[in-house]
Amino acid sequence: MSTQPSNVTVAELQAIRDTMIRAMGNPRLRARGPDGQEIQYRSMDELLKAKSAIEALIQEVAGTNGSSVSVASFSKALKSGPGWPRPGGNW
Question: I need a labelling partner for 5 at 20 to 30 A (CA). Which of 20, 67, 71, 74 fits?
Fold first, then answer.
């Protein structure tokens, strides 16, 4: 699994979190992300773990002096776009 760092802003993380909240209301745990890609989580547990990771990143980014933080982007994932959090906590 290869990683590529990318900068993510608080607003981008909040948009991802909002998409996850919408997925929670979908019986198939699906939602369209801020980049237009559709993502489907395998379970509610997986979705909750990913949401928790995003919320931790929001706190981390909000606590920095800058407006963004570097995070790793993993290439192995379910269908999703660049910078979009992948199931299982992968980026």
Answer: 20
Q: Which residues are paired to 38 by β-bridges?
A: 32
Cβ partners under 8 Å of residue 74, min gap 6: 1, 2, 3, 86, 90, 91
Note the pTM of the prediction, 2 decimals: 0.62
pLDDT of 3 over the 90 cut:
no
Encoding tokens for residue 71? 């995070």
Phi then psi dihedrals of residue 17, to 5 deg: -60, -40
Tokens of 90: 């992968």
- Reply yes or no on whether the pLDDT at 53 is more than 80: yes
Q: Which of 51, 58, 44 is nearest to 86 (CA)?
A: 51
Domain boundaries, the chain: 6-80
